[in-house]
Structures are given as C-alpha cells and as structure tokens.
C-alpha cells in the first residue's frame, strides 16, 4: 500500500519581483541564443550582460550586453560559434546600474545547428548512367552557408566508392556527378555530405529497368465495411503523355496477411479477375471468397491488397499498379482532438473540441446523429479535524446532466465545459450513436488561484498578416508580456496593455521567421510576485522570403519545339533547375528537394521536441502525410499547457531566470496500507481514447485526296533527364532558359530552387509540367542486333490521337544498307533496294502496327527512318540497328617496334594471311602508327581485352592499366586533362565494380559471396592495385586494411601464404594451393601497402619480413621459371640480399633471339593430327608474357636500361590490336612493366617518317613529339598478302598491322570438346543442350562458356537451373556467358531454353565457345542452327506482313 500526499510548494521563499528573463532551453552551434529581458523594478536604467559558458571549466563561449528600462522588455542576442562542441553549458545573466542581480541556468546542447539538403536528378539509375547531384547547407533562418564540404559516396555494401574533400561553390550550392560503372553493385547507394560537424545522406537506387511508358492506377473506396458483400473499383492505365492505354487486365485481391487455419488444406483465399481495358476498366470483387470454414476474414482492421497487371495490346508490355482497402465495423468515428488542453483552470471556461468524421477523415454528409456528452466530476473531501496517522485525502465523484450537440458540416463540435469550483478532475465521454470517445482533464494549480487562458482568434495565418489573440483571466490585469518562439529561437517579443480587465484582446504581426510553426508565451506578474502564464502553438504559412516560381511558356509542345522555362526569384539569386521524364518519377521519386521537406526540417529546431499533431486517433495517431494535408486548414492552436506555471514554461521550451515566483506544484507519495478501493479515478494524469460498444476500433494510420503533310523533323534524341543547369536571376527577378523539347513522347516535370545571399533559400511551391506530345506519331520496335543475311521484320506503330479517323501512309525510307523484302501475290519473294510503303486506316484514339520486312546488306550500324503521313499530320523517327557478320570474330596483330635511335633506316615486311573459311566481307586490315610505346593502351583503355569481365580478377582490368598509364604519362609530362579524365573515369568504375566481389570478412574472390571462401591470390591482387590507384582516385584505407587483416590471419608459421579459396590461376597459385609463387605474389602486395598508417603497419611489416625469409629459404629448391620470376621481383621490392642471386638464376633460362629476350614455359597440347590454320604472327602464351613482365619489372626497379631493352622489345611484339595482351594477368603485368620501363627510356627528341605499302596502297606517317600519343590509323582498301614498312629519321615508334575477320567453323586446335543438341526446335521456342569436356589431362582452369542466341530470341537463364561448378551467368547482347570453376574430362552439360521476342526469319547459325580464361588458346568453337528457323520465311513469323497469304 502507498500513501499519496498532495502538497502545494512555493519554490521561491522570498521573491523580490524585480526581473524576468526568458531564454530557449536549447543551444545550437552557429544559432544565436535570444533572451527576452524584462525589468520589473529598477531605480534607473539597468545594464544587463548575458554570458554563455561551458559549465565544466567556466570558459566563456559568447557574451552580449544591453541597456534596459523598467517596463520595456527587449531581446538580447548571444552569438554562438559554429564549432561549439557537445558538452554542458549555462547562461549567466547579471544586472548592474539601477538593478543589481545575478542568475544562471543550464542549457541543453543540441548538435544540430545547420541543415543539409541533397538533390539528385533521379532516384533510380541504370548501370553506366551518370548520377548528378547538388548539395547545400543552411542555417535555420534559411541562409545558405558558403563553406567547404566533404562528399562521400557509398555502395550498398557500405564501401566508400568516391570522395571529394573540402569542396565549395560561391553560390553555396555544390554541383557534381559520378559516372556509374556498367556492372556496379545493384541496390541502394548513398551520397553523404559532411560540413560544420554535421552530415546528411541521400539514397539512390541502381538497378536494371525499362522506363514505364504508362501508369497503372486502381481507384477503390477509401475504406470498406466488414458487412460489405462486394467491393467495386476501377483500373486505369494512361500513357505518360496523358492518353489511354488499350490492353488487358489481370486483377488479384488478397488479404494483407494470411495464417492458414488449423485443419484447413485449401489455398489462400483471393479473387482473380481478367478484364479488357480501354483506358479504364471497372470491376466488382465478391468478398464471399474470403469466407474460410464459415469464418469471414474481412473484419474490422483487416485490409485487402489489390494488384492490377495491365498488358498493352501493341507491345505486350506489362506494368502493374497496387492499392489497398481497409475495413471497419463503422463508417464513422468520433474523437477528442489533441489540440485540447489536458488541464482546466478553475474560474475560466474550458472548451473541448470533438470531431465526427468518416473513417477516411472526410466530413459526414447528410443527416447526422447528435453528440451526447457525459461529464463526471471528481472532487476532494474536506480534511477531517483530526488527521489519523495514515491519512490520504479522499475523493468522490458525481455526474453532471448530459448535454446534446448538433454536428456541423465541418464535423468539429465545440463543447463548453462548466467546471465546478470543487473539481479536481473532469472525465468527459462523448457518444455518437454507438461510438464513443473519452477525455480526462486535470486541475491547474496556483497558490493565489490566478490563471490566464490564451486564445487564438485568427485562422490561416500567413507571413505578412496579423494574428489576433485573446486573454481571459481570473483577475483583472494591467500589463502582460509575450514572446514568440520559432525554430528554437525567440523571434518576437512585446507588451500588452491589459487595461485592468479580465478579457484582453491583442494582436501581433506575423512574419516568415515564425513559419512554419510558432509558440507564444504570455505572462504577467502579480503584485505578490507570482508569475501567471499560458502558452499555445500555431502554424504559419510563408516559410520562404525568397519566392520562387517555375513555368513553361506553353503547357503542350511537340518534340523539337523551342520552349522557354521561366523562373522568378529574388534578384541575383542562383536558380537550380531540374526537368525529368515523368516516366522516371513513376519508377521512383524522392530525389528532389521540396517545400514540405524543408518545412519538416525547420520544425526539428523547435525547443519543444515532442511535436503534437492536431488530430489524435485513439491507438496510433495519424501519419505525417495526413497531417501535412490538414494542417493548412486546421484553425485551432495546439495547447501545451501544464498543471502550474513551471510546467507551462517547461512545456513551452523556455527557461526562466527571475526573482519572482514561478509556482511549481509538487506531489509527494508515501506508503498507504489501506488505500485500495478508495475511489481514486481521474486523480492522476490524463487519458484519451476511442471505443465502440465493447469493441476497440483501430483507425487507419483521310478521307479524301488532300495532300499529305510533310515531316518537319525526324525524332532521334531520347534522354531521361532533360534539364540540369543553374542560372543567375536578373535584377528584375526573372530569368528565362531557352531550350528545345527532347524527342520523347511524354510529359516533362520541372522543379527549381534558388539561393540568395540575403533572402536565403527559396523553393518553387509547385513543379512545372509540359506535355511533349504529338497527336499523331510513329514509334519503331527493333531488336538489339541482327546478323547479315537474316530477314528481320520492323514493327512501326502509328498512334492517332487526332479528332477523327485518318488514312496514313507509312514509309520505310530506302537505304542501300538493307534490301526490302517484297512478297508477290503468288507468294514469290524478291529483294530490292527501294522504299517500302503501306497504307493503313487508323481510328481516332487508337494505334495500329505496320510491318516492314528487310534483309540487312551491310555490316555495322545502319539507319532506319520511318515516316507516317496523313492529310492532317506527319511524324518520323530515326533509329539505329546493329548488323553483325556471320560466324564469330577473330583477329591477330603483328606489332613492329621501330628503333631508329642509331639513325639507320628500317625496312620490315609483315605477311598477311587468312583461313579459307573466312566469312566474305568480314575481313579487313588496319595499320596503326604511334610514337609512344604506351600509346595503344592510352587510346584503348576501354577495350584492352576482347573478353567478358564478369569475375573479380577480370574486373581489375578496368582499373590497373589506367593506373599504369596515368603514372607513365605523368612521369613523361604527357598527361593531358582529357586523358586524365578518361583514365580516372575507368579507375573509378573498376573500383566500384571490384567491390561487388568482396566478402564480409574483407577478402575477395572470383565470384564474391558465391564462393565459399575468399581467395588469397585475388585479395593480394586487389590490395596491390587499389593501393597503386590511390594516387589518382579515392580508395578507402578501411577497405585495404580489412583485406590485409584477413590475409595476415591466413599466414603460416613458416611465413608462407596458402590459398584457402579456389585455385583459379594454376600457375600462380600452385596446384596444391600453396608454394613460393603465391607467397611472392602476396609479398609484392604487402610491400605496395607498407605506407598504411595505424595498427596495421607493424603487423604488415612483420608479415612481410616472414614472407621474405620464407622465399629466401626456398631459393635453392625453386626450379619453375614462373615462381622464380615472381620471387625475383618480390625479393627486389623487399630489398632482400638474395634478390640478385634469384634473378641470375632466372636469367640463365632466358630465350634470346633476334635481339629480343623472353622466357617460355612448355604447354601440354592435344594429340590431334588435324591441320589447323595458324596466323603468321601468333601471340605467345599468357604465362610467357607474365614471366617476361616480372623480369622487366626487376630491370626497371634496378634501373638497368641496357639489359632490359631486349625484354621490352619482345613484350611490345605480343600486344593485341587494342594495346592489351592475351588474358588479364599478362595484360596487367605487361603494362605495368612496360610503363615503368618506358618511362626510363622516354625521350621527346624524335622525328620519324614511316611509309606503309600494301599492293597499290601507300600511306605516309609523320611521328614527332606533337603527335606522339595520337594513334594514326589507316584502313587498307583490300586484303594484301603482305604489308611493307619503311622508316627513316631518329627515335622510336610502334607500328601494328591488325587483321580482323569472321569464321563459321573452328580454325584452331581445340582443347575442349563440345556437343550441341537442339532438344526443342519450333518457330517460337527452342531448347539447346551443350555438353563440354576437357581434352587434356586433369582439368582446365577457370572456364567460360558463351552460348550465342539466335536473333529474335531471348534466353530464359532461369531455365539453366543448378549445374555443378557453375558460378555466374551473365547476358551480353545476343549471348549468355557462363562461368565455371573448371571443366574436367567428364562431360559438363547445360540446358537452356529460349523464346521468340522478335520477328526474324532465316536466322544464321549461332556459336557456342568454351575457353580457359587464363589460357584463351585452350578453347573450342561449335556452331548450331535451328532447322525450323533456317527454313522459315517472313510470312511464317509475320502473317500480318504485306503480301503474306
């Protein structure tokens, strides 16, 4: 039992009543602290000083002082520094002169003194797109801060991908961008902005997507009743340009959640409907479907989720829309609004506001019931004359006669409550029919029984208007003081003449500083020193002084039209514009900065941290979106109130320094052994709730021959983001941006925000919209690519939104790059180069397709232009179609290093040959000349290797060579800004992509989390390359440290590093997943990272020392040249005394021929007796290139130019036509060694004349320092048998003769065997089965299988299923790429299905190629062809084509 004693305690025993000082409770960095000083009594002027100090050491933070007169309150502002750190602070106020006093109080530190906003041009991006973003910071007064920012971008795995440090813009708005890699980590990325000790993040999504061209919406009732038997609604589908969609609908309705009942074996209850749609389709759902085992699952509080999938008739594209309906027992609800004070003040009237509304918060229309209010009063019994030892003041209750109220149209019922004098609490119960709601009020306390009640008598307050208030008092007042707080500071203060009255009206001027929400605190001081106070909060419109608007000079325009974007803002503001395709917003929004976002942010500065919504729905409240929607019209203020003056001030978010009395009513509790059952209802606290008859309701959170129109413009430009720019507003407050509407048929949505040095931030309240639309237009559906000789049907769709039906002439313009297929009436087919036309009749508001069959005749990109013309309108669209040659592409390259440093002329002859099975027209020869050894790499950074890069090691090819190029060009003073930008771009993309292969423990592996363990080899390769890239791009040291720590945990006691992961590169990792080669490779990576700081440094150095000792001990036993090559370089880097010994041993195995030196490792070959074609110049094995590269790196490290020159010459002869080599590791190492060595031999004193002769073809090239990095190229007009090169002058240059061709059969000796079987072969689908086995001993290394897909078909990769050793599947153009750990001598079979998606006949054979990634010469190519498709005709795949029977 407990005893509760209520005692009235006066907190100040002796009050002088001479001053009252009010300050906000919070202090924030950079936000001035405003103090309202009111001198009550003084003999003369008073000098007041306010000093902000740190409580712990009394260090002054800020000071302000001013002179004050009795009876004239004024504000004093203490400036707070931006760099204020977290801690305990206090404000001390002293008075001198006419009044001497000192007082102080503690303040709450709030770290937030600024707000940061981030805008991206879109919320979702495709891989390879550019992310544009803007960022700025502002103070709560909307002043934009011009200060440096740090920018960080993170991928979904929290890897920091990029950063910019201490960047700024004069306007305060920072604009930047990042180019996404083509294979980044998919998911939610984030941009993080850091400034002034604060940070903010913006999330954007990276995903594969197709822009939706129409929007699907479902219209259903706002709510349903549990007693309903059906639910009716409408599905609507509209193109982004506003026109209706025709198609079909599949509708499904399910419960929001479903738990299968006991002993119920049926399926989940749902409703599924199929409907036809012409813009919209109405539906009726039978709710009886949700009756299971006699139980109805449509009950109060449950929801139905409805999804509509709309398939467009023309293209068969399907998009979906979703909605839900919540069900209730009653259509209406009743509630007390939370704006009601929770306390009453004796002697003053109390008005409670009750609202009756429908469940969707709309007013109840038509006849209404009345609201009946039942009032229960609790009062305290008089204290007995003799008080027993254990006594508690006892209470009793009684009821007041019920009152009935009529419900107005607004639904809000004001209820005047008569408060009896003896009441200590009041319980209100309001009923509306069977519905009820409750409100309990507690008493306010004052030792003198003096109270004031503040009322707001104005509604819809806006900046620039006035606000009318009224004070009602229990006693006549002569003068009152008010202060207005907003955004955490006092923004206004003044006095009110009470006129010795009990009712005092007064008004204040409302300004933008009070928006979006303000709180007014009013008080007066009685003659006995007691402060009597009240406070209310109210919303104010007009946050922004800088008024911004944006509009187009027209609401509709045709693609290609000139339009003006008109923006208004304060003069000299910098306006930032964004305009995107509405389809982008349908996909995902949330990227823009809006007024509502800023308003919500400003509210977070309130010193009253727990905001109260005007509405309260018992048991959960209302969502933010709903509150925003209603706060504009809500006419009533929010009362924070309190049971005494101290609580009122506290609830208002202020602190009071005074020698007057701030009454605090205390409640003391003691044990009470006999208090049960004494009737304490309503004595403590407040409660709100709603209910209904014993059950709880959970509320909702050419006709004629007129001349055809001509086409004025052919559409060919289709961006997703149209405008992303900023402009300065003229002195008249206007700026106009003249631009051209893009070619997309859609609606464009534009927004704008502006910043101004004086008036601060402004945001356009509404976006501008322009409909880029033609009432008559044509679109063209194309496959990605076709093969020469195939018959492809082009589908042209004509849309007619004119007011009447029209006859249309549709034309496919003639182009010598393709032949038109003409089907005669007798079924015969001819192929002619001519314009194709077709006449169709298109009804108003509909669309119709026209089909044009063609046969591409030329290779490469061919242009297709389709026109649609009627007598009323015309349109044309131009698209590109890629035509590829038959067969598979092959190439070989013959590099010639011209060394004229000794002045003698050079004459070289390069033989050219082709296999007999070459595809006619696919062959061509290219001769290139460049004056720099690294030139081919510089010019081909994006295509060094003609292989996929779908695993972790291959991906590094997008990063490492760029590092070497940038280092080389920097050291030779040739790094231009455009090359630097290109290299950095590729490095950043490589960094992004590589992080997709990182494990959670920090390690890397070929396929990331698909692998059971990280790879020691790949992890070492990654940290080595990442560290080398740090000079040029941001690499997060945390990423490096995590990986190194994982590697160090695997090191053995003898210093060696084992391979816990898959053995991918067998020569490197060793067949037993260990050995000196791998340890040497790891040591190289550790030496690269020996400058890392922190705890990792010592651990790294110790591990490197142990690895070096291990290698030194293994020297005598190493016989493999590959291991010797790596060990030579590793020991040289680690400054081992044995480095020279190892390198001498390696040199003894070198092959020296024709002035060139290299190393060779014998390879196992098959025993085939078949004679295969071989090019005149064949690239060496990747392993030979790797070994020779390590040797050249040692020469470069030792600065041994003369000795290394012969190795450099050999390496330059091994390049492919793109400046790379055979595979990835050899490309990386060769480029690293060449770049380091070439930097030593570089000279800008050279001048060569190179003459190239091939038959009748002759070309002269001049090579000098001005064009050293320019790749000079000549395409030979015919295929010669040889190319002759003559050079004179002095210096060095590189000439390459590259031969390209396609073949339709295997031309190289295979090391794999593959069989291809068509298990299903129909006109519209096929199933292909491939079985592959390794022909040599053991197993291959990591293997890649590429399965070509016939034109007009798409692969169903999910049909492949689970296959042993399969690690990853990718799709690229018209092939599926499958990665395997290895392929053994046991056949490995894969089955895959494909389905028709395009109209293509006479399809050409498709290739299946299998190869070892690290030994690409170990390969096989096999072709397959569908007999059905081979013999198909245009009319088979397109019965609607002209001339088809």
Task: Let me know the number of strands.
Answer: 84
CATH class of the domain at 332-382 and 395-543 and 611-638 and 686-692: Mainly Beta
Q: Characterize the main sheet.
A: 6 strands, mixed
Radius of gyration, CA atoms, in whole angstroms: 41 Å
Which features would summarize this protein structure in a list?
1445 residues; mainly beta; Immunoglobulin-like; six-stranded mixed sheet; six-stranded antiparallel sheet; 84 strands; 14% helix; 42% strand; disordered N terminus
Write the layout of secondary structure elements.
Blueprint: E1 3-9, E2 19-24, E3 26-27, E4 33-39, E5 46-54, E6 60-68, E7 74-78, E8 89-97, E9 101-109, E10 115-120, E11 124-125, E12 130-138, E13 149-154, E14 160-167, E15 174-179, E16 187-195, E17 198-206, E18 214-219, E19 224-225, E20 230-239, E21 246-255, E22 270-278, E23 280-286, E24 291-292, E25 295-296, E26 303-312, E27 318-328, E28 332-336, E29 343-344, E30 350-358, E31 371-380, E32 395-405, E33 412-417, E34 423-432, E35 435-443, E36 452-456, E37 466-486, E38 489-509, E39 517-525, E40 531-539, E41 549-552, E42 556-557, E43 562-568, E44 574-581, H1 582-587, H2 595-603, H3 624-630, E45 638-639, H4 645-651, E46 654-658, E47 664-670, E48 688-692, E49 714-715, E50 721-728, E51 734-740, E52 746-756, E53 760-763, E54 768-772, E55 776-781, E56 785-787, E57 791-800, E58 806-812, E59 818-823, E60 829-832, E61 836-842, E62 846-856, E63 860-869, E64 874-884, E65 888-899, E66 906-911, E67 924-930, H5 935-939, H6 952-955, H7 960-971, H8 977-994, H9 1016-1029, H10 1037-1050, H11 1066-1069, H12 1076-1088, H13 1095-1114, ...
Parallel strand pairs: 3-9, 11-17, 19-27, 29-35, 42-54, 49-64, 56-64
Antiparallel strand pairs: 1-47, 2-4, 2-46, 4-7, 5-6, 5-8, 8-9, 10-12, 12-15, 13-14, 13-16, 16-17, 18-20, 20-23, 21-22, 21-26, 24-25, 26-27, 28-30, 30-33, 31-32, 31-34, 34-35, 35-48, 36-37, 37-38, 37-39, 39-40, 40-45, 41-43, 43-51, 44-50, 44-52, 52-53, 52-54, 55-57, 57-62, 57-82, 58-61, 58-63, ...
Helix pairs in contact: 7-8, 7-9, 7-18, 9-10, 9-12, 10-13, 12-13, 12-14, 14-15, 14-16, 16-17, 16-18, 17-18
Main location: membrane
Signal peptide: 1-15
Membrane topology: Lipid-anchor; GPI-anchor
């Amino acid at each position: 039992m407990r005893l509760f004693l209520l005692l009235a305690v006066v907190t100040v025993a002796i009050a002088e009543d001479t001053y009252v000082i009010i300050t906000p409770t919070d202090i924030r960095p950079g936000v001035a602290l405003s103090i309202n000083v009111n001198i009550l009594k003084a003999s003369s002027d008073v000098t007041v000083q306010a000093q902000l100090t740190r409580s712990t050491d009394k260090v002054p933070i800020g000071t302000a002082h001013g002179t004050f007169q009795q009876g004239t309150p004024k504000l004093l502002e203490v400036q707070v520094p931006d760099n204020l750190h977290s801690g305990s602070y206090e404000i001390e106020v002293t008075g001198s002169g006419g009044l001497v006093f000192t007082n102080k109080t503690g303040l709450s530190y709030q770290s937030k003194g600024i707000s940061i906003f981030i805008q991206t041009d879109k919320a979702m991006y495709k891989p390879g797109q550019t992310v544009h973003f803007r960022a700025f910071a502002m103070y709560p007064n909307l002043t934009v801060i011009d200060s440096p920012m740090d920018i960080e971008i993170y991928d979904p795995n929290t890897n920091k991908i990029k950063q910019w440090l201490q960047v700024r813009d004069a306007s305060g708005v920072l604009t930047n961008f990042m180019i996404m890699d083509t294979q980044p980590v998919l998911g939610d990325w984030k941009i993080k902005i850091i400034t002034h000790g604060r940070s903010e993040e913006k999330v954007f999504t990276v995903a594969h997507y197709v822009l939706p061209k129409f929007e699907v919406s479902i219209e259903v009732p706002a709510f349903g009743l549990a007693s309903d038997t059906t639910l009716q609604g409408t599905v609507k589908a509209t193109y982004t340009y506003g026109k209706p969609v025709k198609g079909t609908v599949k509708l499904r309705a399910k419960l929001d959640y479903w738990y299968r009942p006991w002993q119920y074996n049926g399926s989940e209850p749902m409703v599924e409907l199929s409907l036809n749609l012409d813009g919209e389709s109405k539906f009726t759902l039978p709710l009886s479907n949700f009756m299971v085992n006699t139980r109805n699952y449509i009950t109060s509080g449950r929801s139905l989720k409805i999804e509509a999938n709309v398939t467009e008739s023309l293209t068969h594209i399907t998009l979906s829309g979703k909605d839900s309906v919540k069900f209730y027992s009653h259509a209406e609800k009743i509630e007390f609004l939370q704006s009601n004070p929770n306390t009453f003040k004796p002697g003053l009237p109390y008005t409670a506001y009750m609202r009756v509304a429908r469940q969707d918060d709309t007013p109840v229309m038509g006849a209404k019931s009345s609201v009946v209010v039942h009032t229960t009063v609790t009062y305290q019994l008089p204290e007995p004359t003799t008080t027993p030892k254990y006594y508690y003041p006892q209470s009793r209750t009684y009821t007041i006669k019920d009152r009935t109220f009529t419900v107005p149209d607004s639904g809000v019922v004001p209820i005047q409550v008569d408060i009896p004098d003896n009441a200590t609490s009041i319980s209100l119960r309001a009923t509306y029919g069977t519905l009820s709601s409750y409100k309990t009020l507690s008493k306010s306390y004052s030792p003198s029984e003096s109270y004031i009640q503040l009322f707001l008598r104005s509604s819809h307050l806006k900046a620039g208007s006035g606000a009318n208030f009224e004070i009602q008092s229990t006693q006549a007042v002569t003068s009152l003081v008010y202060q207005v707080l907003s955004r955490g500071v006092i923004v206004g203060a003044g006095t009110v003449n009470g006129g010795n009255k009990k009712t005092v009206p007064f008004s204040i001027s409302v300004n933008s500083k009070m928006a979006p929400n303000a709180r007014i605190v009013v008080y007066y001081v009685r003659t006995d020193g007691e402060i009597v106070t009240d406070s209310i909060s109210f919303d104010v419109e007009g946050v922004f002084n800088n008024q911004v608007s944006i509009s187009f000079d027209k609401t509709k325009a045709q693609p290609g039209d000139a339009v003006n974007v008109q923006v208004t803002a304060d003069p000299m503001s910098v306006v930032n514009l964004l305009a995107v395709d509405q389809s982008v917003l349908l996909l995902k929004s949330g990227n823009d900065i809006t007024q509502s976002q800023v308003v919500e942010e400003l509210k977070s500065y309130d010193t009253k941290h727990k905001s109260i919504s005007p509405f309260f729905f018992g048991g959960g409240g209302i969502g933010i979106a709903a509150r925003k929607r209603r706060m504009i019209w809500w006419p009533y203020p929010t009362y924070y109130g309190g049971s005494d003056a101290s609580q009122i001030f506290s609830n208002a978010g202020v602190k009071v320094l005074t020698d007057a009395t701030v009454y605090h009513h205390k409640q003391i509790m003691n044990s009470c052994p006999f208090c049960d059952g004494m009737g304490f209802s309503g004595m403590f606290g407040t409660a709100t709730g709603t209910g209904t008859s014993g059950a709880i309701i959970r509320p909702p959170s050419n006709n004629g021959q007129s001349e055809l129109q001509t086409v004025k413009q052919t559409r060919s430009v289709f961006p997703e983001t149209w405008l992303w720019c900023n402009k300065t507003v003229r002195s008249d407050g206007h700026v106009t941006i003249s631009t051209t509407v893009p070619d997309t048929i859609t609606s464009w949505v534009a927004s704008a925000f502006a910043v101004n040095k004086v008036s601060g931030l402004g945001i356009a309240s509404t976006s501008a919209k322009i409909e880029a639309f033609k009432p008559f237009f044509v679109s063209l559906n194309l496959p990605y690519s076709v093969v020469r000789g195939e018959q492809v049907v082009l589908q042209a769709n004509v849309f007619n939104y004119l007011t009447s039906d029209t006859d249309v002439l549709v034309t496919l313009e003639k182009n010598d790059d393709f032949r038109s297929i003409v089907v005669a009436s007798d079924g015969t087919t001819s192929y002619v180069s001519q314009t194709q036309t077709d006449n169709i009749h298109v009804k108003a508001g509909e669309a119709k397709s026209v089909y044009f069959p063609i046969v591409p005749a030329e290779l490469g990109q061919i242009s297709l232009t389709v026109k649609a013309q009627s007598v009323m309108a015309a349109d044309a669209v131009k698209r590109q179609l890629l035509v590829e040659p038959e067969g598979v592409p092959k190439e070989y390259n013959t590099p010639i290093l011209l060394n004229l440093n000794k002045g003698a002329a050079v004459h070289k002859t390069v033989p050219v040959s082709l296999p007999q099975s070459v595809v006619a027209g696919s062959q061509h020869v290219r001769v290139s000349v460049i004056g720099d050894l690294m030139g081919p790499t510089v010019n081909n950074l994006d295509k060094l290797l003609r292989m996929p890069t779908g695993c972790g090691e291959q991906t590094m090819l997008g990063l490492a060579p760029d590092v070497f190029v940038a280092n080389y060009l920097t050291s030779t003073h040739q790094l231009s800004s455009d090359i630097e930008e290109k290299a950095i771009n590729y490095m950043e993309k490589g960094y992004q992509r590589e992080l997709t292969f990182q494990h959670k423990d920090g390690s890397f592996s070929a396929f990331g989390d698909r692998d059971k363990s990280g790879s020691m080899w790949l992890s070492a390769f990654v940290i080595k390359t990442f560290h080398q890239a740090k000079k040029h791009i941001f690499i997060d040291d945390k990423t490096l440290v995590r990986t190194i720590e994982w590697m160090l945990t695997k090191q053995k006691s003898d210093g060696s590093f084992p391979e816990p992961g898959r053995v991918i590169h067998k020569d490197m990792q060793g067949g037993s997943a260990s050995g000196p080669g791998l340890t040497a490779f790891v040591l190289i990576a550790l030496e690269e990272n020996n400058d890392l700081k922190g705890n990792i440094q010592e651990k790294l150095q110790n591990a490197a020392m142990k690895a070096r000792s291990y290698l030194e001990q293994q020297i005598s036993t190493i016989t493999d040249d590959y291991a010797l090559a790596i060990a030579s370089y590793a020991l040289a880097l680690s400054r081992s005394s044995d480095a020279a010994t190892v390198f001498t041993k390696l040199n003894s195995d070198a092959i020296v021929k024709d002035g060139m030196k290299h190393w060779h490792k014998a390879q196992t070959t098959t025993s085939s007796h078949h004679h295969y074609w071989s090019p005149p110049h064949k690239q060496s094995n990747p392993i030979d290139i790797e070994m020779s590269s390590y040797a050249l790196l040692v020469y470069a490290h030792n600065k041994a130019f003369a000795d290394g020159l012969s190795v450099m010459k050999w390496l330059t002869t091994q390049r492919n036509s793109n400046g790379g080599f055979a595979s990835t590791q050899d490309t990386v190492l060769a480029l690293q060694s060449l770049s380091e060595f070439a930097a030593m031999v570089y000279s800008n004193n050279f001048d060569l004349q190179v003459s190239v002769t091939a038959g009748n073809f002759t070309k002269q090239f001049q090579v000098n320092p001005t064009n050293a990095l320019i790749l000079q190229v000549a395409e030979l007009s015919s295929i010669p048998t040889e190319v002759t090169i003559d050079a004179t002058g002095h210096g060095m240059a590189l000439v390459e003769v590259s031969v390209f061709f396609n073949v339709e059969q295997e031309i190289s000796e295979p090391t794999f065997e593959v069989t291809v079987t068509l298990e299903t072969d129909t006109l519209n689908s096929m199933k292909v089965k491939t079985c592959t086995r390794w022909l040599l001993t053991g197993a291959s290394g990591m293997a890649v299988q590429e399965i070509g897909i016939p034109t007009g078909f798409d692969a169903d990769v999910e049909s492949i299923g689970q296959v042993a050793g399969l690690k990853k599947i990718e799709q690229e153009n018209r092939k599926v790429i499958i990665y395997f750990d290895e392929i053994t001598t046991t056949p490995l079979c894969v089955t895959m299905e494909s389905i028709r998606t395009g109209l293509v006949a006479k399809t050409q054979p498709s290739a299946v190629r299998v190869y070892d990634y690290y030994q690409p010469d170990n390969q096989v190519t096999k072709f397959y062809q569908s007999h059905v498709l081979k013999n198909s005709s245009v009319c088979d795949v397109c019965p609607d084509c002209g001339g088809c029977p």
